[in-house]
Amino acid sequence: MLTPLRQPGSVSLRGLIPSASFVGCADITVSSVASHSDECTPGCLFVTLPGHQTHGRKFIPQALQRGAAAILTDFPLADISLPQCIVSDVPKAYGQICHGLFGDPSRHLGIAGVTGTNGKTTTTWILRSLLEYASRPTGLIGTIENCDGILSEPSVLTTPNAMTIAQLLAAMREQKTRYAAIELSSHALDQSRPAGMGVDVAIVTNLTHDHLDYHTNFENYVAAKAKIVNYLKPGGILVLNADDEHWERLIPELNQQVGTLTYGQSDDADVTFEILEMTPRGSRFRIHFGVERMMCETSMIGEHNISNCVAAACGAIHLGLTTEEICEGFAECGPVPGRMEAVECGQDYRVYVDYAHTDDAIANVIQSVREISKNRIIIVCGAGGDRDRTKRSAMGRAASLADQVILTNDNPRTESPEQIVDDILCGFDVSANPPLIEFDRRKAIQRAMELAHSGDTVLVTGKGHENFQIIGEQRLPFDDVKSCRDAILHTIRATGQSNFPAKVAG
Ligand SMILES: CC(=O)N[C@H]1[C@@H](OP(=O)(O)OP(=O)(O)OC[C@H]2O[C@@H](n3ccc(=O)[nH]c3=O)[C@H](O)[C@@H]2O)O[C@H](CO)[C@@H](O)[C@@H]1O[C@H](C)C(=O)N[C@@H](C)C(=O)N[C@H](CCC(=O)O)C(=O)O
Ligand SMILES: Nc1ncnc2c1ncn2[C@@H]1O[C@H](COP(=O)(O)OP(=O)(O)OP(=O)(O)O)[C@@H](O)[C@H]1O
Ligand SMILES: N[C@H](CCC[C@H](N)C(=O)O)C(=O)O
Ligand SMILES: [Mg+2]
Asked: How many independent structural domains does the chain possess?
């Protein structure tokens, strides 16, 4: 549960959106607003949003029944007795109204918005950690949790709708939380969920293949990501990853003069970094920030996570942290749940749970382990159902970089698990690296632990922090970290192997 909010205020639509026109009235004063007919309450404004399944305007009768007193629409609707406010961009106006009702909370906070195919959760998590280390209470909105700086709750979406964002930012203000790190997914940017909010720093971590079921093609996907720039406050800064293959594709999309800062290992970047050491216990790296040299240490593993650290450092500098605060903050930053999270229960091989669910992410985590270990890599992976089918064969190709692949269920949702595995197998050279197939994820994890020899690494990818598995319409309890622990302990009991000092948490 988050901090309960005081009642929102009220706004005049004519004052808030000067370009709006009105049917049946000269202005509408709004004190409550709903974008789903089921959420309408007596006297509220019903916002008719376009959707992918349907259109909100089809639910005006239901909204009326629940007491809606006015309609927000993009063209005048005939046969409706209620006052209507007509705007050209309903999602944008919806955001303005939500944030207006809560006193425009983003104006009072220092905010970093993070987009990118991979690395949003990790970068926002690191940024929050850096800010909090420097005694700046920070809220978080993202895939794992929403937090107002004091209280948190598990998230439903990575980026919630405009009303939830406005409420969360208002709760942060109420808690005297002065900063926020917010994930901005491509779906959210496409649907204008962040409308009404401003960010001081907009970070784009990378652009690789995901969500083409929704965006249709990579160009649309890049265009959706580029919309992050629309949310920059005056004087805000856009932070781009110069190591990313596609980062320059964002430039023509931006079509605006904004302050930019690039980061990367490439010498062309404004902020460069070098990796000094990577071990199974963490990494050391040096950031060159202007004339400053920052020696940094983190318990995080993998080049991609060092890149995320540098992205977070760029954001933190712009939000006012000193380089000393950032270096010290990295050392204190704990692991991000389900992102290369080590599971140690006394086994003599390494086990990491990671949220890699794209080909790029899978290739990165395998490469990260190759750099710190010469022994075999066993990967347990699958792909989500009812999501981008075109990424599966590439995920298979990436997974086959491991020495042994065990294909299993991720969240099959309503798709056939056999079909999903067939799609993944299209990317495989089955004769060169024959995978094992075990649809039951618990058994697949158990199998990986049985196959692991001393010094090997087991990677369990795709579900990270998730504490559920969606099979059909059912959402069943499931936790990769717990399943790994159970499997390791079971294997140790069965074989008697145990070379590591036992560190069984929880
Ligand atoms: C694909 C997608 O993003 N869908 C979101 C979208 O649904 P939709 O476009 O299908 O909406 P719709 O059902 O056509 O309805 C249109 C309008 O009619 C209204 N309506 C609908 C039915 C009704 O009875 N009454 C009513 O008023 C709806 O409130 C809506 O305003 O708008 C809905 C309302 O805001 C969201 O709940 C829904 O998220 C669904 C649940 C979802 O799974 N989204 C995922 C894919 C998503 O957004 N993921 C990203 C993360 C991706 C990443 O990790 O990179 C995220 O930010 O979480
Ligand atoms: N900068 C990066 N570049 C490439 N891969 C990354 C990067 N950061 C993280 N990854 C990989 O992507 C996975 C997901 O990371 P993270 O949760 O931070 O991304 P996200 O963008 O928030 O994902 P989602 O869209 O699901 O919310 C990680 O577990 C890791 O395997
Ligand atoms: N945020 C990502 C997460 C996918 C994780 C994977 N476990 C799956 O269910 O596909 C998405 O919505 O596509
Ligand atoms: Mg995320």
From this structure: 3
Residues lining ligand 4 (ion), CB within 5 A? 120-121, 143, 158
pLDDT tens across 114-162, in order?
Answer: 999 999 999 999 999 999 999 999 999 999 999 999 999 999 999 999 9
Contact 115 CB / ligand 1 (< 6 Å)? no
CATH number, domain of 401, equals 3.90.190.20
User: 271 and 362: one domain?
Assistant: no
Q: Residue 335: exposed, middle, or buried by beta-carbon count in 10 A (0-12, 13-18, 19+)?
A: middle
Residues 255 and 369 in one domain: no
Q: Is the CB of 59 under 6 A from ligand 1?
A: yes
| Cα pseudo-dihedral 348, 349, 355, 359, rounded to 10 | 180
Residue 418 and residue 383 share a domain: yes
The answer as to whether 6 is a domain residue is no
Q: For residue 383, which atom of ligand 3 is closest to its CA?
A: 10
Residue among 114, 117, 118, 461 whose CB has most ligand 2 atoms within 8 A, to mutate: 118
What's the distance, Cα to Cα, between the start and end of the chain in Å?
24
Residues 284 and 182 occupy one common structural domain? yes
User: pLDDT per residue over 389-412, tens digit each?
Assistant: 999 999 999 999 999 999 999 999
Which of these, 463, 286, 445, lies nearest to 361 by C-alpha position?
Answer: 463
- Of 100, 133, 151, the last residue of a domain is 100
Q: Does the CB atom of residue 465 touch ligand 3 within 6 A?
A: no
Binding site annotation covers 37? yes
Of 293, 312, 332, the residue at which a domain comes to its end is 332
- Cβ of residue 51 lying under 6 Å from some atom of ligand 1: yes
Both 323 and 411 in one domain: the answer is no
Range of the domain at 135: 104-332
Q: What is d(CA 304, CA 367) in angstroms, rounded to the nearest whole number?
A: 10
What gap in Å lies between CA 410 and CA 404, rounded to an integer?
18
pLDDT at 503: 42
256: confidence class by pLDDT, cuts 50, 70, 90? low
The SS3 assignment for 68 reads coil
* Closest-lying ligand 3 atom to the alpha carbon of residue 384: 10
Q: 3-class secondary structure for 234-300?
A: EEEEEEEECCCCCHHHHHHHHCCCCEEEEEECCCCCCEEEEEEEEECCEEEEEEEECCEEEEEEECC
Q: Is the CB of 52 under 6 A from ligand 1?
A: yes
346 and 314: one domain?
A: no
The Å distance, Cα 120 to ligand 4 centre, comes to 5
Cα separations in angstroms, 268 against 153, 242, 317: 41, 8, 20
**Does 120 share its domain with 72?**
no
Q: Which of 247, 53, 56 is nearest to 45 (CA)?
A: 56
Type of residue numbered 328 = E
Q: How confident is the model at residue 6 (pLDDT cuts 50, 70, 90)?
A: low
